[in-house]
Amino acid sequence: MAEIVKVAVDAMGGDNAPSEIVKGAVEAVRESSHVKVFLVGGEAVVNAELAKYTYNKEQVEVVNATEIIETAEPPVMAIRKKKDSSLVKALMLVKEGTCDAYVSAGSTGATLVGGQVIVGRIKGVERPPLAPLIPTVTGCSLLIDCGANVDARPSHLVQFAKMGSVYMEHVMGIKNPRVAIVNIGAEEDKGNALVKETFPLLKNCPDINFVGNIEARDIPSGGADVIVCEAFVGNVILKMYEGVGAALIKKVKEGMMTSLRSKIGALLVKPALKSTLKAFDLEEYGGAPLLGLNGLVVKTHGSSKAVEIKNSILQCITFTEQNINKKIKEKITMEEN
Amino acid sequence: MAEIVKVAVDAMGGDNAPSEIVKGAVEAVRESSHVKVFLVGGEAVVNAELAKYTYNKEQVEVVNATEIIETAEPPVMAIRKKKDSSLVKALMLVKEGTCDAYVSAGSTGATLVGGQVIVGRIKGVERPPLAPLIPTVTGCSLLIDCGANVDARPSHLVQFAKMGSVYMEHVMGIKNPRVAIVNIGAEEDKGNALVKETFPLLKNCPDINFVGNIEARDIPSGGADVIVCEAFVGNVILKMYEGVGAALIKKVKEGMMTSLRSKIGALLVKPALKSTLKAFDLEEYGGAPLLGLNGLVVKTHGSSKAVEIKNSILQCITFTEQNINKKIKEKITMEEN
After folding, report:
1. How far apart are the C-alpha atoms of A10 and B45, rounded to whole Å?
2. How many whole angstroms from its chain centre is CA B196?
3. What confidence tens digit (pLDDT) does each residue in A40-77 have?
4. d(Cα A202, Cα A199) in Å, to the nearest integer?
5. Calpha distance B293→B115 (Å, rounded)
6. Which residue of A218, A254, B114, B167 has the fewest C-beta atoms within 10 A of its own C-beta?
7. Pairing, β B140-144 against β B226-228
8. Closest to B237 (Cβ–Cβ): which among A220, A236, A248?
C-alpha cells in the first residue's frame, strides 16, 4: 500500500471557515485511509468543530495558529508580518517536509506569494502557474495560467504547457493530452505579440502534443485538454464561465416561471436538469493547484463548502502518489538541455 | 422629417450571401422609410434575389461588383488587389459620401483594414475599436474593443471609453453610461501593466462616468454599460459568451431528455424558455460598429441571417440621425486640449 499523504489545511481561510473546512477535512479522512490532515488554525475553535464528528483520530492533527490573513490584506506584507497565521503556518508544514501538500480557501494573493516565498519553486521552473480544472461538454480541461503571473513571457507559457501536460496525463489519466494556446483566431499568424512569439516555441516542443490555437468559443466544448494562456486572459476565461453560467441559469429559471404551463414543466424537468448542470459547475472540480512548487499548493474557491475542501484534499493524494513534481522536474530539465 | 440615411450593404459577404443579405435589406426598407439601401454585389444574382420580394423600389439600388473577398484571404492584400469586390466597392460608397454607413457579414479582417484604409479615421482618433453590444441580465452593454487592435496602449483605451460613452448615450439612450475597465480584481492596484497605466487616466477623465474595474464575472449581470478592454481580451469575452452559452444550452437540453418525466416537462417549458433565451442571444443585437471612422462601418456575424442584417441596417439610421461621429469628434478633441 502507498504511504500516507499528509495535507496541511488552512482551517481559517475562506468565507465558510472554520466550520465547512473542518467538515470537509473530516469527510476526506472518512473517504480515504491514505491521508492525514493537519488542520491549522485557532486550536479551540477547530477542536470545537471537530467535536461534532466521529472519525479516525489518527488521521487528523490540529496545529495551533493565532493569526488570520484576511482576503483584503496586501499579500506580501501579510506573509511577512503574520508569521503565526494559519496560512503561513500551513505553508511552513510543507516547506519543512512535515506535509506533502497544502489546501486553502483563504486569500489567493497570499497563497500565491506564500507558495513561492515559503514553499519555493522547483529548480528550473520560472513561474508557478495557477491551473484550475474547468468543465467542458465532454469532461474537463486544465486552464493554465489563471491568476498567478500577469504579463508573462513566451518561455513561461512553454513551461505552463509542459507542466499542464504532466498534470492531465498523470493526475487526470488523459493519454497524450492535447495542448492548445488561447488565440483570437485559428490561423497560425493571428494574435498579439506574446502569442505570436509563443506559437513556434510550442510547435517545436518535442515532449508535448501541441494542437495549435484555440478560440475561446471552443474551450467549453472541450477543444483541448491543456489550455495555455497568460494569467490575465486565463482569469477572464474562468470568470466568464461563472458569469455567463450564472446569467443563463437565471434566464432559464425566469423563462420557466413565465406561464402556468411552463411552471408545471419546470417541476418535471428540475431534478434531471439539476444533475446535468452539476457536471458543469466549477466548484465540483475542487481546488486549483499552483504547479511547479516544492510541494503541492492548492487554492480552492473563497466560498468553498465542505465538498470542495474534501475533493481538494483527495486530489492531493493522487498528485503525491503519482510523483507529479518529480515528473515536472524531469520535463522542465529536459527543456534546459 | 429627418433626411434619408443611405447604407451600403455588402451583398456577397457572409455564409448566407446573397440570399439572406438581400432579404434583410428588403425587410429593413419595409420597416423604415428613412433608409435607402445600396446592395453591392453581382448584379444578376442580387437582382434575382430582389425579384422574390415586393418593396419600395426607390429605397433599394443595386451596385455591380464582380469580385468577392473570401474570409480566409489575407486582408491587406485582398483590399489592395480586389478593387472590384463587393466589400471594397461598398466601403468606397461611404468614402465618396454617397452613403453614410456600411454593413457587411463578410471578412472581419478586410472590413477592419478597409474601414481604416478606405473610409479613414476621424481626425484625432488613434485606433478605431470594434464595439459589439452584448446581452446582459438587465439589458445590454457595449464591449469595446473586441478585435480591431491587439497590443493597445493606455491612450487607446481612454479613447475607447469616450467613444463607447457617446454610443451608449446617444444610440442606446442610456443617460450617463457607466464605464468600467476589465480587470482581474475589483481593487485599484490589481491588473497587468496596461490596465494599471490606464486606470488613473480613466479616473481623471472628466467627461466619462468611470466606475472602476469590472471582473469578467460581473459583465453578464450588467455591471457596467461600457466595458473597456484591449482587443485580445475583448475577443475572449465575446467568444466565451458564445461558447459557454452553447455548452450550457446543450447541457440543459441533455438534462431534459434524461427521463420520461423530464421529457414531458421539456415540452411544457420549451416555448417560454425559447423566448427568454432569445434575449440572451448575441445575434439579436445586430452588428458591431467599428467606431471612430469617417462614416459608420458595421460588421455583422459571418453567419448572419436576414434579421441580423435588417437590425444592422436600422441601427445605422439612429447612428446617423444622432450625429454620433460629430459627437465622437468633439469628445476626442476635448481630450487633446
Report:
1. 70
2. 27
3. 999 999 999 999 999 999 999 999 999 999 988 889 99
4. 5
5. 7
6. A254
7. parallel
8. A236
